[in-house]
Amino acid sequence: MHLLQGAVRNYAWGSRTALAEFAGRPSPTAHPEAELWLGANSGDPALLLTSDGKQSLLEAIQADPEGALGPEVRARFGDVLPFLAKVLAADEPLSLQAHPSAEQAAEGFNREERQGIAVSAPNRNYRDRSHKPELLVALGPFEALAGFRPVARTVALMRALAVSDLDPYINLLAGESDADGLRAVFTTWITLPQPDLDVLVPAVLDGAVHYVRSGATEFEAEAKTVLELGERYPGDAGVLAAMLLNRISLVEGEGIYLPAGNLHAYLHGVGFEVMANSDNVLRGGLTPKHVDVPELLRVLNFTPKDCRPINPRPVDRGVEFVFDTPAPEFAVSMLRIEGDQVGREVEVSAQHAGPQILLSTRGRVQVQCKGDELTLDKGAAAWIGAGEGTVSVVADEPSTVFRATVGF
After folding, report:
1. Contact, 135 vs 273, CB < 8 A?
2. CATH homologous superfamily, domain 2-145+250-294
3. 3-state SS string over 163-208?
4. Which residues contact 231 (CB under 8 A, 6 or more apart)?
5. Is 122 buried (19+), middle (13-18) or exposed (0-12) by CB count in 10 A?
6. Average pLDDT value for the chain
7. Which conformational region is residue 151 in: left (phi greater than 0), alpha (psi within -120 to 50 degrees), or beta?
8. pLDDT tier at 316 (50, 70, 90 boundaries)?
9. Catalytic site residue from 149, 183, 283, 362
10. Rounded to the nearest 5°, which phi and psi values hold at 320?
């Protein structure tokens, strides 16, 4: 068991204050900080703080995969940590994006290898052979777009904006089955010539302005999101695509699970994110980066659904709460130590002897296993290798700790 120092990733959409304040560092920072990577991804592995100094978690696992991962995890996933944990801080909207299925990722990676496209090339879609299901849990108010909204609600939104230029697309949605109509409209929009976008996007923005000024509230959040995206990405097809997606507001402790093919964009907020250890992203707009339209259309799932927040279920005396997700690479739970549990030793349930990453998001806890003890203040993380035995935590004040491990 060791303290884990995450790797800070700087992207333009990040925050100059959120991650620094979360970790107790000086704020504001010189550059926007978007993500704190807590894992063994080769792109930016976290560091173990040992008595001999700092060591890459990736190198530690490579040096002793049996001790780090355990025989069960190695048998299932090989000598790699199958999940990546992050703290994400979005001050501005991220790009519209989707992730491939495992089969699509393997096929796409092999195809681009045969084509000789460098893994680091900006036009590379598949940087590894893995899919990338992910769970994000809000650490405060969090806003997102995720999944195609049921068509009837999308038609109602577009009619409420009262933009005559949208009429052909309303008719297209109404004249096809839900998935086929969404595919047709999205494909049309994302392939529109720029001169056509330069007419349609401003018309939609004018409609959104009139809707907001009218005082109507049914689609107020959707209209304001369209306006925000239109201001940041003028003439971008992603502004139109945002009208097709569920607009989601999470409160602290609620989660959202994103399977393969789910078109989404995080808009604003701080969250704890756990995903399969992959960097495969197909972008669909709201970005200056590479957008491969045919490949995006190949991986998208156009079946509409209500994308509701996930509330964790209690599994252990009302202290540990699990977020139920189907991904085999990861499992996520949250320890809430409050009331009469403060000051008591709380064991962390374990379904297998795999590795764990703990992240403190509130208060201060003592983590104990095999006679070792670590203190986790807010923003601090710990790596616990396989076979460490029973893990317990003790908090002298109300505290919250997130736990990421391999799926059961």
Report:
1. yes
2. Jelly Rolls (2.60.120.10)
3. CHHHHHHHHHHHHCCHHHHHHHHHHHHHCCCHHHHHHHHHHHHHHH
4. none
5. exposed
6. 94
7. alpha
8. low
9. 283
10. -100, 135
pTM value? 0.94
Q: What separation in angstroms does the CA of 214 have from each of 56, 157, 206, 223?
A: 56, 14, 12, 12
CB 165 within 8 A of CB 157: no
- State which H helix or E strand residue 7 sits in: strand 7-9
Q: How confident is the model over 141-191, as pLDDT tens digits?
A: 999 999 999 999 999 999 999 999 999 999 999 888 899 999 999 999 999
What residues are paired with 253 via a beta bridge? none
How is the chain split into domains, by residue range? 2-145+250-294, 150-244, 313-405
Q: Residue-wise over 322-345: b if at least 16 C-beta within 10 A, else e? A: bbebebbbbbbbbbbbeeebeeee
| Residue predicted with more confidence, 389 or 240 | 240
Q: Write out the two tokens for 383.
A: 């790596």
How far from each other are the two terminal CA atoms of the chain, in whole angstroms? 21
d(CA 230, CA 222): 12
CATH of domain 313-405: 2.60.120.10
- Tokens for 12, please give them: 């333009």
| Structure-token pair, residue 27 | 């704020």
- pLDDT tens, 96-124? 999 999 999 999 999 999 999 999 999 99
Find the helix or strand (DSSP H, E) in which 95 lies: none
Q: Any bridge partners for residue 33, and if so which?
A: 15
Beta strands across the sheet bearing 364-369: 345-348, 391-395, 364-369, 372-377
For helices 151-161 and 194-213, the axis angle rounded to 10 degrees is 80
- Smallest CA-to-CA distance from 334 within 324, 348, 349, 320 is with 320
- Count other Cβ atoms within 10 Å, centred on residue 27: 15
pLDDT computed for residue 317 by the predictor: 66
What span, in angstroms and rounded, lies between the C-alpha atoms of 171 and 177?
A: 12
The residues that bridge with 400 in the sheet, in sequence order, are 336, 362
- pLDDT score of 352: 66
What SS3 state is found at 140? Answer: coil
| 136, 151 contact by CB (below 8 A) | no
Residue bearing tokens 């904006």? 161
Active site residue 283: yes
Cβ(226)–Cβ(204) below 8 Å: yes
Burial class (CB in 10 A: 0-12, 13-18, 19+), 178: middle
